[in-house]
Amino acid sequence: MTTNRGSLIAFISVTLLFFAWGFITNLIDPLIPAVVEVFGLKMSDAFLTQFAFFIAYGVFSLPGGALVAKIGYSRSILISLSAMVVACLIFPLSTHLRLYELMLVALFILGGGITVLQVAANPLSAALGDPRTSHSRLVLSQAFNSLGTVLGPYLGAAMMLSGGMFAASAAGDMEAARTASLKKIDTTFLWAAGMLVLLVLFMWSQSRRITAAAPPVQAEKFSIMDALRAKWAVFGGLAIFVYVGAEVAIASIMINFLQRPDVIADLLRTPGETSVLFFTFEGDPAERAGKMLGWLYWFGAMVGRFAGSFLLTRIKAPHLLAVFATMTTILCLVVSQTEGSTAAYAALSVGLFNSIMFPAIFTITLERSRASVAATSGLLCMSIVGGAFIPQVVARIADQGHYHAAFFVPLVCYVLIVIFAIGASKAPIVSHGVAPSAGH
Question: What does each C-alpha distance from 283 to 32, 118, 289, 290 come to in angstroms?
Answer without folding.
Answer: 18, 34, 9, 10
